[in-house]
Write a structure and sequence with these properties.
The complex is a heterodimer of chains A (169) and B (466).
Chain A (H helix, E strand, L loop, with lengths): L19 E2 L3 H26 L6 H26 L1 E4 L3 E6 L4 E7 L5 E5 L2 H5 L2 E7 L7 E7 H18 L4
Antiparallel strand pairs in A: 1-2, 2-3, 3-4, 5-6, 6-7
Helix pairs in contact in A: 1-2
Chain B lengths: L8 E2 L4 H21 L7 H28 L2 E4 L5 E5 L5 E5 L4 E8 L1 H5 L2 E8 L9 E5 H15 L16 E5 L2 H9 L2 H20 L4 H22 L3 E5 L2 E6 L4 E6 L4 E8 L8 E8 L7 H6 L1 E7 H11 L10 E3 L4 H4 L8 E4 L3 E6 L4 E7 L5 E6 L1 H5 L2 E7 L7 E7 H20 L7 H10 L17
Antiparallel strand pairs in B: 1-2, 2-3, 3-4, 5-6, 5-11, 6-7, 8-9, 9-10, 10-11, 12-13, 12-18, 13-14, 15-16, 16-17, 17-18, 19-20, 20-21
Helix pairs in contact in B: 1-2, 5-7, 6-7
The chains are: A alpha+beta (169), B alpha+beta (466).
């Protein structure tokens, strides 16, 4: 489960056990949201500052806003690149995180339900997030940014596998 | 209430009295604090006025409780599951799926006990949408219904006439009140509480701050929680019966839990610093359905508040058959872990045998956590920046919500990766041979195979059924 393995691009069928990257559209979607939120906030602050006795502070706010946006641009790119999943013979593996690495292994027989969610921005980019639930609250196995048709396939596949191997708690 | 009855039944007619009785003391003292000073007259008159006001509140509560009582019924449906209908304006009908029954609690608050009532709480896995509870039933009815639920969950269906057989029980351990009191006085939570109180008092004293409320809370909280721990776990008794482990405890509010076999998801044995000289340990468990919620729930997750190690191990052998925690080979962590966790370093270790995964942690409060492979929900590897700089990672073996977490902390990355993959594989393999959910069939076979009761190495409390 090293983090330096070669990834298979989203949508391509990997050999069993290979890592599948999430869609690069996830990065675009997240950058759009982050950019919009920070942009709006910066504009509000700038307008506010422009009417103070020190209007040049607005320029500082602009620079800070641009700084934060470019930092999150870079961070989101890395975060999305670090997120991948793997459908192995007996379990599903999801990994994520740059600063705090996390890898979660969920045996198929332990899945209680599979959630597929897709917000308005996600839908605009044709992606969805697949979340696996077990009886443990700490499992937290979410795969964001799965292409919509892949997500549906993954959900059905996981549900079938879970059904076949499930045996209570 | 006899045997299998599909007729809707009511709760005990004295239910409104018991419900109202519950609010009487808090109503009286609450009023005394809020309005006590503003009342006219001497102390006697004031007390009388307060009592009258409290009585009015109690009457209102009793009224609501009565209406709710008239609208609450329960019965067994055609599938043999328990159903409860309740609600005045918004009717709701809940179904307790007995194949998912994890444990049954019978709780008797002091007021209910005085009038011979008991609350029955079936705990069902995955019941996030609120707990199911039948409050109140007559004492005998509650016992009978509990036996019925356990028998049905075990896969036995009684005939229309006869009641479910009462499972004979054998007391395994009874915690002496003296041990309980001493263990609470030297427990880590009280010591931590006292230290915090000392700091708060010191700060307040030197700064002459007016934070009297903060002071009061800091001093009262550890005292109250210790008293509460004593009252809740007084005369803690562990008994064994064919339908599961029976746990009884409580001085004022008594609680009796029945945990069917195979319902324990994970176990933690802990030993605070000052318990060492007495050789005492505490045993906590995760049981699906109890969740990690409020304090009463936390108390429900206690398997033994305090007991000698040998006794704890013997009880452990009952909940997780075939597990000998001291025989499980443990692997220590690499020297690099010393720089990440200098205090815990010598204690950190993890390992596994055929049935369980074991993690050892804690220096001041020693802890050993066990999770059967069959109960492993998922496995996680986490690595923070500090750990990465030392080439370390932690493996978490996830269990259902509860006080027990199983973490093999600060292994080398390769070791952690290998350990997690192997544990996931063991979880999958163990499930393929997992015993059936309805345990009675298997139990019966075992009973027939050996007529004699299983041997026990607990010398104390060999007393028979009560």
């Amino acid at each position: 489960m090293g983090y330096d393995r070669e990834l298979i691009r989203a949508g391509e069928r990997p050999e069993p056990g290979g890592w599948i990257a999430v869609s690069p559209k996830l990065a675009t979607a997240r950058r759009l949201v982050a950019g919009a939120v920070i942009g709006v906030l910066s504009v509000v602050v700038m307008v506010g500052l422009a009417f103070t006795p020190m209007p040049w502070l607005a320029l500082v706010a602009l620079l800070v806003g641009v700084g934060i946006i470019s930092w999150s641009w870079w961070l989101i790119g890395r975060q999305v690149a670090a997120t991948a999943y793997s459908e192995r013979t007996d379990d599903l593996v999801v990994r994520s995180g740059i600063l705090f690495h996390r890898t979660v292994l969920v045996p198929y027989g332990r899945m209680q339900l599979v959630d597929v969610t897709s917000g308005p921005v996600d839908r605009r980019f044709g992606i969805a997030s697949v979340q696996l639930h077990t009886a443990a609250a700490t499992t937290d196995a979410t795969i964001p940014g799965v292409p919509a048709e892949d997500a549906a396939r993954l959900r059905d596949h996981l549900a079938a596998l879970g059904e076949a191997r499930s045996a209570g708690l | 209430m006899s045997g299998l009855s599909t007729e809707p039944r009511r709760l005990h007619p004295l239910t409104p009295v018991a419900q109202a009785g519950r609010v009487a003391p808090p109503a009286f003292f609450g009023l005394a604090i809020v309005a006590g000073g503003d009342l006219p007259g001497g102390p006697l008159l004031r007390a009388l006025l307060l009592a009258l006001m409290a009585l009015a509140i109690v009457a209102v509560v009793a009224g609501f409780a009565y209406v709710s009582w008239t609208r609450t019924t329960f019965w067994f449906d055609d599938d043999g599951d328990l159903r409860i209908a309740s609600g005045l304006f918004q009717r709701q009908e809940r179904r307790v799926q007995l194949s998912r029954l994890q444990a049954v609690d019978v709780v008797q608050p002091i007021v209910a006990r005085l009038v011979g009532l008991a609350e029955l709480k079936p705990e069902v896995a995955g019941g996030e949408s609120g707990k199911v509870s039948l409050a109140f039933l007559g004492e005998a009815d509650a016992q009978e219904l509990r036996n019925e639920l356990l028998a049905r969950a075990a896969g036995i269906r009684t005939g229309d006439q006869e009641a479910a057989p009462v499972a004979p029980e054998r007391v395994l351990v009874r915690v002496p009140p003296g041990d309980l009191a001493l263990s609470l006085l030297i427990s880590e939570s009280l010591i931590a509480g006292v230290l915090i109180a000392v700091v708060v008092v010191g700060v307040t004293f030197f700064t002459e701050g007016a934070a009297a409320i903060g002071l009061l809370i800091a001093v009262a909280a550890p005292i109250l929680s210790t008293i509460n721990g004593f009252l809740a776990n007084y005369d803690f008794t562990v008994a064994e019966s064919p339908d599961g482990l029976r746990l009884r405890r409580g001085l004022l509010t008594t609680r009796s839990q029945t945990v069917p076999p195979g319902r324990v998801q994970a176990v933690e044995i802990s030993q605070p610093l000052l318990w060492r000289r007495y050789g005492w340990v505490r045993v906590r468990v995760n049981i699906a359905g109890y969740g990690g919620g409020d304090q009463a729930e936390g108390e429900s997750s206690l398997l033994l508040p305090v007991a000698p190690v040998v006794v704890a191990n013997a009880i452990l052998a009952r909940v997780l058959p075939g597990v000998e925690v001291e025989r499980v080979p443990l692997e220590p962590v690499p020297p690099a872990a010393r720089r990440r966790a200098w205090l815990q370093y010598p204690r950190l270790a993890a390992g596994y045998d055929d049935t369980v995964f074991v993690a050892r942690t804690g220096r001041l409060v020693r802890k050993i956590s066990l999770i059967p492979h069959v109960r492993t929900q998922s496995v996680r590897i986490t690595q923070g920046p500090w750990q990465r700089s030392l080439g370390l990672a932690s493996v978490h073996v996830d269990s259902t919500p509860g006080p027990v977490t199983v973490t093999a902390a600060h292994r080398t990355l390769e070791d952690a990766t290998q350990m997690a993959a192997a544990q996931a594989a063991r979880a999958t393999a163990a499930r393929l041979v997992a015993p059936p959910e309805r345990w009675m069939t298997e139990r019966m076979q075992r009973l027939v195979a050996s007529r004699r009761p299983p041997e026990t190495n607990l010398d104390e409390e060999r007393a028979g059924a009560s």
